[in-house]
Write a structure and sequence with these properties.
This protein has 441 residues and is an all-alpha fold. It is built from 17 helices and no strands.
């Protein structure tokens, strides 16, 4: 539950930003949406790579190997620094990239401003991801929840001050929203480290000389890059879906945004369940308790998919009511009400695939989920969406039916992989040569 709260809390910051900047102007809302999407497309790869800490730390905790935990933490910090520099450089030419993508000319400067201000918080946010994964693996989640709550409150207050110019502050609009976001993301790591320093300092000090050895770092990247690639493939697919919706017109885009926003909000629950499952599975692998690995895998699927079945029922029974929360336009509501039941079915398979990926991550199997995402989303989903949406003239609903089939394919592949892996013996992931020799006796 705490991990789910953290996931929902992180998304709530973005939802609140959209609501508040939307009250400033429609132009500000559109520019912020474009800027945030560009930022996230770049950042999600790094966030995925840092999830390599799940199997490394949780399995080390299960094996009671404190030295391996410390090495993983310090290498995670080094990796966050490197990723922030490399990926951050991709944010610098944002204005040129957006112009080349033919985004509305009046929005490009505002969106670029948003991205460049948020760039300041790129490293702090990546460090937050590192320390969050460490504390989750250790089972210490209270500090993370407290941090998320405090930063959400700070974000609301800063938005109120800087977007609208209250209490004598300058009225900054989009720049104010970006500044509030950058400060809030920086506070995430500052508050989390302050609350959990007694725990973290034992892993951060002293600096281990082995941290910068290239072979272990290369093995770490071989595990982490597929996670980042898997998440990038999924985000890019749904980003492409927005562009396809744009070819169908404004009504289709608005209806799609309503349906995908609802699905994204509920999706945060199985994302949290997947993170928790990765931790419990990793600990069980580290302690060589294979029956526990199977029990936690089943428990994760029951919790994650069970929740998505319940939310799917609400989507199927209340599509018009839910669509009405997003728009008063009759055409938008009517089309969104047609998409939301598809989103309900979509959710069940989305929950299955994300929890299955969490199970495999806990085991240390990170390459297959990347392959499944490439096959399901790009080989099956995209061609089918285009075929149904345009060739079969089903429009927005056709694009969504294609996405549903894509998620069904990804979920089936990952669930099959989970079943196969649970039938085999599982060994702890060790990336240091000295520890490998010790493990062999």
């Amino acid at each position: 539950m705490p991990i789910v709260i953290v996931q929902v809390g992180l998304m709530t910051m973005g939802v609140v930003d959209a609501i508040m900047v939307g009250r400033y102007s429609a132009e500000a809302l559109a520019a912020t949406a474009i800027g945030n999407f560009y930022f996230f497309v770049v950042a999600v790869f790094g966030m995925g790579v840092l999830l390599v800490l799940d199997p490394l730390i949780s399995q080390a905790v299960g094996a009671r190997d404190e030295n391996a935990v410390a090495l993983a933490v310090q290498r995670g910090v080094a990796l966050a620094l490197a990723l922030s520099v490399v990926l951050g450089s991709l944010l610098l030419p944002a204005e040129r990239v957006l112009r080349s993508l033919r985004q509305p000319a009046e929005l490009v400067p505002l969106a670029a401003t948003y991205i460049l201000i948020c760039l300041v918080s790129f490293l702090p946010f990546n460090l937050f991801i590192v320390f969050r994964q460490v504390l989750q693996a250790l089972g210490m989640t209270r500090a993370i929840v407290t941090t998320i709550v405090l930063c959400n409150l700070a974000n609301v207050g800063l938005n109120w001050l800087l977007i609208f110019g209250n209490l004598g502050m300058p009225r900054l609009g989009v720049a104010g929203a970006a500044t509030a976001t950058a400060i809030s993301r920086t506070l995430l790591v500052v508050i989390l480290v302050a609350l959990s320093w007694k725990t973290l300092r034992g892993y951060l000090r002293p600096l281990r000389p082995e941290v910068f050895q290239l072979p272990p770092l290369a093995r770490m990247l071989r595990l982490g890059v597929p996670i980042g690639a898997q998440q990038e493939l999924e985000v890019a697919y749904f980003g492409g879906l927005i562009l396809l919706m744009g070819l169908l017109g404004t009504i289709s885009v608005a209806a799609h945004q309503a349906a995908i926003n609802l699905a994204s909000l509920t999706f945060m629950v199985p994302v949290g369940v997947a993170s928790a499952t990765a931790v419990f599975v990793g600990r069980a692998v580290g302690s060589s308790d294979e029956p526990a690995v199977r029990r936690y895998a089943i428990a994760g699927l029951v919790c994650g998919v069970g929740f998505m079945c319940a939310s799917a029922l609400a989507f199927l029974l209340l599509p018009v009511v839910l669509a009405g929360l997003y728009s008063s336009d009759a055409e938008v509501v009517a089309l969104a009400a047609g998409l939301i039941p598809i989103a309900g079915l979509f959710q069940v398979f989305d929950g299955t695939q994300v929890v299955s990926a969490g199970i495999l991550r806990g085991i240390g199997d990170t390459r297959f989920p990347m392959i499944a995402a490439a096959l399901g989303f790009w080989l099956v989903g995209l061609p089918l969406s285009v075929l149904l949406g345009f060739n079969a003239r089903l429009g927005a609903e056709g694009l969504w039916w294609g996405s549903l089939v894509a998620l069904m394919a990804v979920a089936a592949l990952l669930l099959h992989r989970v079943r196969m892996r649970l039938r085999r013996s599982m060994e702890r992931v060790i990336i240091d040569d000295s520890e490998k020799l010790a493990a062999r006796g």
